[in-house]
Design a protein that fits this description.
Helix content is 73%, strand content 2%. The strands form 2 sheets. A two-stranded antiparallel ribbon has the order 1-4. The protein is globular, with a radius of gyration of 29 Å. The longest helix has 28 residues, at 235-262. The chain has 21 helices and 4 strands. The protein is mostly helical.
């Protein structure tokens, strides 16, 4: 006989049915009393079936240090890799090239990586915003060239005040980016087409602004020359900046904890904040030490300071402002963002304006490194490196996901590879092939990660 046939019609289980039948003749009213017993028993067992906490702060509070490992495993299984692949990649790069050349991790080599990463890294910050929006900007290199040409034409060729020339160059990038955003948001032309047209058009304007000059050299002692050539020789600069960064980090960690407590939300324990602060402090102090103490150290590069300033400001905008949340919302689902009352067109125009601004600013760093503005500035593999830096650092090509700091991580990876290959005498062709392979690996990881998150129900 099947299990269904053995089950009484009144819905009781076979074990409880005899007890209910025996009680009925003695006390007819006993049947109603036995009915609530099943719910009471079920209610008593509910607290034993606890749903595991998924918030890392809750896991830490419930499981202690084991909670970190549990949360880490959950993220890996769910495809939330974060910056783990790029950090592991940097460790592998450092080990491989250090074994090939003992000077790879020297003070001079690290300083070169920091300086060369700054200009293109600033441009990559702008690309991060565009990629989070779910779009692409192919005009970055040309806009950088136009910005450098505007600066050189005003200051060097026409004797305009240096700071006015710099401001005009940056604002030119802002206007170009806003124009791209207008055609994309208001007219409906795909961003790929708009920026591809811009890539060609602004390249022509760059050549027109340069006129008959093949290049315009950077004046000696000018601000643009100092962007990549100036180093803070005083040790207090590097160590002071490191201590300031630690203090700011602690402040925001404690501020976030206080806000969550005020809102009666789970917050990180003080022990976790101290652990995070300790790791961060070791990292920045080691960098300050390498910039100051070893043989060949030249001090803190001005280029790195400006790059970090752009990163901090952009990160604050992306994570701590309403505008930043709107960017992620539009990148995640533009139609849902529109229905939520977000001015999608305005956000898109603003993002492309940011991209143009940082492209022009980064172009001044490239001009500083190359010794002046040229007709070819921003050409070659500039665009490829900028986009590759953002993607390698962890920003998704599919929109709605990314961090500003990915521009730093990705550019360090690219410049470390180029620095290491240069030190062992590899040609540019080999460098391009390896960089392309790293870019492809980053996109594959991103695609697999998104697919895993969808399978786990977290995308």
């Amino acid at each position: 006989m099947s299990d269904l046939a053995k089950t009484p019609a009144d819905g009781t289980t076979p074990e409880t049915a005899p007890e209910s039948t025996a009680a009925a003749p003695e006390t007819p009213a006993a049947a109603p009393e036995t009915a609530p017993t099943a719910p009471a028993t079920a209610t008593a067992t509910v607290p034993e079936q606890r749903t595991p906490a998924v918030d890392p702060r809750l896991l830490v509070r419930e499981e202690g240090l084991m909670g970190y490992w549990t949360e880490f495993g959950r993220k890996i299984r769910g495809g939330e890799l974060g910056s783990l692949p790029v950090i592991l990649g940097l460790i592998v790069i450092a080990i491989v090239f250090q074994l090939q050349n003992d000077n790879f991790l020297s003070a001079g080599s690290v300083a070169n990586i920091a300086v060369y990463a700054s200009g293109l890294g600033i441009m990559a910050v702008g690309i991060v915003f565009v990629l989070v929006l779910g779009e692409i900007d192919l005009s970055m290199g040309s806009v950088a060239g136009v910005g450098a040409a505007v600066w050189a034409g005003l200051q060097v060729s026409n004797g305009v005040n240096e700071w006015v020339s710099l401001l005009a160059a940056v604002l030119t990038g802002t206007a170009i980016g806003a124009l791209h955003g207008f055609f994309f948001a208001k007219i409906g032309v795909p961003a790929f087409v708009v920026t591809l047209a811009g890539f060609l058009g602004w390249m022509g304007m760059q050549e027109w602004l340069m006129g008959g000059e093949g290049s315009i050299n950077t004046p000696s002692g000018s601000v643009v020359e100092s962007l990549t050539s100036y180093f803070f020789a005083d040790k207090i600069a590097a160590y002071g900046l490191a201590l300031a960064a630690i203090a700011v980090y602690v402040f925001f960690q404690l501020r976030e904890r206080a806000r969550r407590h005020t809102a009666r939300l789970p917050a990180r324990p003080v022990g976790e904040i101290l652990l995070r602060t300790g790791v961060f402090a070791v990292l920045v102090l080691v960098v300050a030490y390498v910039m100051n103490e070893p043989a060949g150290a030249r001090g803190l590069p001005l280029a790195l300071v400006l790059f970090l300033a752009v990163l901090v400001g952009a990160d604050f905008v992306a994570r701590r402002t309403v505008f930043g949340r709107k960017v992620f919302a539009v990148g995640g689902n533009a139609e849902a963002a529109r229905r939520a009352g977000i001015n999608v067109d305005g956000v898109r125009i603003a993002v492309f304006a940011i991209s143009g601004t940082l492209a022009a600013f980064g172009g001044l760093f490239v001009a500083s490194l190359s010794g002046g503005a040229t007709k070819s500035l921003g050409g070659g593999n500039t665009l490829m490196l900028v986009i590759a830096a953002a993607v390698i650092g962890g920003t998704s090509l599919f929109g709605g996901r990314g961090k500003v700091w990915s521009a730093l991580l990705g550019m360090i990876v690219i410049q470390s590879i180029q620095q290491g290959l240069n030190m062992i005498g590899m040609s540019n062709s080999i460098q391009n092939m390896i960089t392309g392979a790293v870019l492809l690996a980053a996109v594959v990881i991103d695609s697999v990660s998104r697919r895993t998150q969808k399978t786990a129900g977290r995308a």
